[in-house]
Amino acid sequence: GVVAFAGRVGRSLSVPIEHPAARRTTYAYLRRVTVAPGTPVRRGTVLGESGGTGPGHDRRVLHFGYRRAGFPEDPAPLFRSPPRFSLAPVDRPACRRASPRRTGGPR
Fold it and tell me: What predicted TM-score, i.e. pTM, was given to this entire model?
């Protein structure tokens, strides 16, 4: 697809992507945008950093919208395949893998 717009819409930073067959996906409530309008994007392209704008400024919120021919549609069927775009993680705490627990079963 191609980035249709990248910037503030109301209180939120948004990136709508125009796709073939009159489809549009929108990623909103971003903290930072890393693409410019007119940029061609494909699977794996980082569009921005999630969180930080929109209602309540919650870092964990990402709005995803899907429209076909201008009408909103349920995006759930799109998620049956791998995601097409990604957002860079923000303020992600370091993860430590827990050591395996012994269960006391037969040895």
Answer: 0.67
